[in-house]
Amino acid sequence: MQAGQRSDLRHFFEPDAIAVIASMKDGSGLGYRTITNLRNFGFRGRIYPINPYYDEVLGLKSYSDVTEVGEPIDLAIVITPPPTVPAIIEQCAHSGVKAALIVSENFAEAGGEGAELQRELVEIVRRTGIRVMGPNTIGIVNPAAGLITAPYYVSYQNVQRGGVAYCSQTGFVGPTAQPLRDYAYPISKTCDVGNKCDVNEVDLLNYLADDPDTRVVAMHLEDIRDGRGFIEAARRLVPRKPLLVFKAGRTEAGARASASHTSSLAGDEQVYDSAFKQAGAIRVRSWQEFWEVPRVFSSQPLPRGNRVAIVSHTGGAGVVATDTAVEAGLTVASFSAETLEKLAEMSFRLTTNPMDMGPILSVAENAFQIQEDGLAAALDDPNVDCAALAVYGGLEQLVSPMVEMFVRLMQNRSKTVVIWIYGMRLPAMQEMRRQLEAQGLPAYIDFETAMKALGAAARYVEIRREFER
Amino acid sequence: MQAGQRSDLRHFFEPDAIAVIASMKDGSGLGYRTITNLRNFGFRGRIYPINPYYDEVLGLKSYSDVTEVGEPIDLAIVITPPPTVPAIIEQCAHSGVKAALIVSENFAEAGGEGAELQRELVEIVRRTGIRVMGPNTIGIVNPAAGLITAPYYVSYQNVQRGGVAYCSQTGFVGPTAQPLRDYAYPISKTCDVGNKCDVNEVDLLNYLADDPDTRVVAMHLEDIRDGRGFIEAARRLVPRKPLLVFKAGRTEAGARASASHTSSLAGDEQVYDSAFKQAGAIRVRSWQEFWEVPRVFSSQPLPRGNRVAIVSHTGGAGVVATDTAVEAGLTVASFSAETLEKLAEMSFRLTTNPMDMGPILSVAENAFQIQEDGLAAALDDPNVDCAALAVYGGLEQLVSPMVEMFVRLMQNRSKTVVIWIYGMRLPAMQEMRRQLEAQGLPAYIDFETAMKALGAAARYVEIRREFER
Questions:
Q1: Rounded Cα–Cα distance for residues B198 and B126 (Å)
Q2: Cα of A425 vs its chain's centroid, Å
Q3: Which of A168, A288, A323 minimises the CB distance to B446?
Q4: Which residues on neighbouring strands pair with residue A387, listed in sequence order?
Q5: Quick check: A251 and B322 CB within 8 A?
Q6: Smallest Cα distance from A293 to chain B, Å
Q7: Higher pLDDT, residue A290 or B111
Q8: What average pLDDT does this structure show over A429-442?
Q9: What is residue A88's three-state secondary structure?
Q10: What is the widest separation between alpha-carbon atoms in chain A?
């Protein structure tokens, strides 16, 4: 890592001044929408609309090109027809614009003329030093800066802030394609690097290693252009924060599809696997895991080991959770004699791990108290490093009392927990999830994914130990 | 299969008269709630409350025991303290009650006295011929009969009717623990067999093979008591309808947990794997897949082969879907020259499989029409056996037009399709899912699971061919 690399991407993620170079047509112009999104999202820096056909856009003075602005510009968002883009980037470079994010499509991924235009961009980057993200990207969300670069309609004003940087090579990671808010993903940044003509995963790792808002990096990758650079950057990041990787283009057909949409050349799966091992990255195996597994790192302390307490409300779920826990590298904790004694006082049915609270909750007069005491006993056991705790979230009236119970429980405890919500009414379950996540408690609807998240947390602790040797 | 076996479970699933033997305390009594649920669910048969302390419950005459009823009873739902249960079952048998469903817990799964009580039940079953489901079960949901046996509060009056029988050894499959309605699972039956003191998975397979409402059986299993019986029953069912199996207790710790909640003895994983192969069952690998994979069989025709068309709205999702498709045993179809020509007329960007509609949809004036024409072209290709089709469901106003488009598209087409919904607003996505499912179109939020469902459909066709040889 050379000094100053972080600052390169700071202009992308934390700009003070943005030029939007795009159609400013009222309502539907992509530049018009971009500015609208920035304002709704709470961006407080300067915004310069750039379009020769307008004097004013949304109350802002519009300029015919960036050279006219006469003020420093950190980031240019460029959404113009591909043939016009190289000249615009050249102009940005000469006007001192530090960073350009090219949303426009039809470059290398389209082949032919588009590929030639992308080669021109690479040449300009090399010659002038301007940094370019894209083309073919929807760019960045940085809730701390009120930054959103997607030029499409975004229904929500903001997302749940948290510690996960979600990085990708596809716009599918973005705020129009994922219910970021409804799922309460705890987001520090999202970023789509698109065709990676300049900025790529190595730059992201270097920037995010130093980003104080980011506690974990989740990265969707179709290819890595610079294997050695990736491993070096990852090995600098991983001692500070975990790196989760979801590799797409694993199959031959997948790799071919990848080549046709970002001109990526996905390579040999074994080569990648070995690179990820050297990098200290943890692989996740699905798009769902890419989103869900990082939650646990956003707010939770790291576990001291891999011994898990599993509290379910049905025996059947406990068995499934146990299988998944073991398959994710966890060990089912043996409760201490003291814990067993405490639990036996409540009910002999609670003295196993997985602990099934169901029979007690359905008959006990003081079910809420027993639940809280049972969870506390499991969490306080010295043989327990982490815990997966079921909660019934199937009714609206349970949301507040259950959230309050968990907040109380975790106030003076520092074990790693994931909460798994089940029940009969999905809106109540989702609302409980949002409220728990807002309290820094990672909450899952799919309990097997919750177990995998704990497994990843325990695995990360091992990786850090290996790195320290 | 002996003749008449089906009728054994018909008394459980399609009773004309039910006795509810339980607490009838106003509002909170488990019998009171069971009767309330039955009425809300639309059960139109006779209901007999059985409780010596009441003359009338919810406007129904109450009896002190079943012998007093004097009318034929198909099913007794028993929710009384365990020590009282054997005598009650004995009484049921002597009064001609055909089937008893024992909801009460604390039998074999609790060990000690409970285990002894369960042995008594087994003895009564053998001696009298009464059939018993449970103990330790929440029983059955059969929407066609308005039947629900769970004694807990159930917020919805009914579920989405469809072709999937969800069978389980845990109450976690039931209407209080899963958002059956919100997820629009297409349900023919749900059934928890609990401790399996009598009725078990073999009976279920025999009954469901002949059940005209069931097009696919999804089975969660912790153990199989009678391996040979299971294989025989499965081999009778599988030529008619697919059997999907989710095996829990795969790990040693999971098997131990299983023993402590239903007294199941989970066995060697390889033995199970071989039994499932002989049975022609398709294994699913997670609780989520257990619920989601069967959807495709509920309404869709079987594919002729495994060649899939993938239509995504982002290149990145297309790559991920392709990987999953290949890993699920599908082959990415090569579009015919004719199809390629049709697609090229719309845009050269559409002439690949996976087909990425994103670039067209974001710029085209007539995006809806292009989407419909593009999907039609892919579906009509003779090289395509099945298709996974992305749809943007992120905004409320898109729900109706998109559902209508798919209904139109599938009206005169008979390829196997799954629809994958993505977008930014979860409530809109879930609503689209419910509406599509109501139209007999399997809809997924997680697109990798959608691909796995198509893979299972193609696999089932292979299994049937193998069975026919």
A1: 9
A2: 27
A3: A288
A4: A309, A417
A5: yes
A6: 15
A7: A290
A8: 97
A9: helix
A10: 78
Given a contact cutoff of 8 angstroms between Cβ atoms, the answer to whether B301 and B454 are in contact is no
Give the integer Cα–Cα distance in Å for B185 and B164: 8
Looking at the partner chain, which of B177, B249, B313 has a beta carbon nearest the beta carbon of A424? B177
Question: Residues B4-11: what's their mean pLDDT?
Answer: 68
- In angstroms, the CA A202 to CA A231 distance is 9
pTM of the model: 0.95
Tokens 């039955």: give the residue: B38
CB A128, CB A93: distance < 8 Å:
yes
B46 has a pLDDT exceeding 60 = yes
Q: How many CB atoms lie within 10 A of CB A241?
A: 18
Question: Is the per-residue pLDDT at A20 higher than 50?
Answer: yes
Q: Of B411, B409, B378, B377, which Cα lies nearest the Cα of B309? A: B378
- Select from A155, A138, A139 the least CA-distant residue to A41: A155
Report residue A267's pLDDT band, with 50, 70 and 90 as the boundaries.
Answer: low
Token pair, residue B277, equals 């192969």
Query: Per-residue pLDDT tens for A144-178?
Result: 999 999 998 887 768 999 999 999 998 888 888 99
Q: What is the pLDDT of residue B12?
A: 98
- Structure confidence at residue A195 (pLDDT): 94
- What Rg, from alpha-carbon coordinates, does chain B have? 24
Rounded to an integer, what distance in angstroms lies between the CA atom of residue B248 and that of residue B286?
A: 9
Spatial distance between the Cα atoms of A469 and B236, rounded to a whole number of angstroms: 59
Question: Cβ–Cβ contacts within 10 Å for residue B369, how many?
Answer: 12
Distance in angstroms (rounded) separating the CA atoms of residues A137 and B392: 19
Q: Do B322 and A253 touch (CB under 8 A)?
A: yes
pLDDT digits (tens, 9 = 90+) for B309-320: 999 998 899 999
What stretches of B336-397 show up as alpha helix (H) in DSSP? 337-346, 358-361, 367-380
For Cα atoms A144, A219, A12, give the angle at the middle one, nearest 5 degrees: 40
For an interface test with A, which of B152, B187, B246, B261 has the most A Cβ atoms less than 10 Å from its Cβ?
B261
Instruction: Quote the CA–CA distance of A137 and A124 in Å, as a whole number.
Output: 19
Q: Tell which of A106, A261, A327 to mutate to test the B interface (max B CBs under 10 Å).
A: A261
Task: Determine the pLDDT at residue B262.
Answer: 61
B32: exposed, middle or buried (Cβ count in 10 Å: 0-12, 13-18, 19+): buried
Bridge partners (DSSP) of residue B192 are B139, B168
**Residue, of A297 and A358, whose pLDDT is higher:** A297
Q: What is the pLDDT of residue B5?
A: 47
Where are the strands (E) in B193-306, listed by range? 216-221, 243-247, 282-283
Q: Would you say B115 and B107 are in contact if contact means Cβ atoms under 8 Å apart?
A: yes
Q: Do B316 and A220 touch (CB under 8 A)?
A: yes
Taking contacts as CB-CB distances below 8 angstroms, the residues of chain A near B253 are 322-323, 325-326, 331-332
Q: Whole-angstrom distance between the N-terminal and C-terminal Cα of chain A?
A: 21
Q: Cβ contact (<8 Å) for B257 and A173?
A: no
3-class SS of residue B187:
strand
Report how many Cβ contacts below 8 Å link chain A to chain B. 213
Between B5-13 and B201-210, two packed helices, what is the crossing angle to 10 degrees? 90
- The residue assigned the tokens 């179709």 is A222
Bridging pattern class, strands B386-392 and A75-79: unpaired
Shortest Cα distance from B113 to chain A (angstroms)?
14
- Judged by CB atoms closer than 8 Å, whether chains meet at A423 and B183 is answered as no
Q: How far apart are CA B291 and CA A255, in angstroms?
A: 30
Q: With bands split at pLDDT 50, 70 and 90, how would you rate the model's confidence at A7?
A: very low
The first and second tokens of residue B345, run together, are: 């007329």
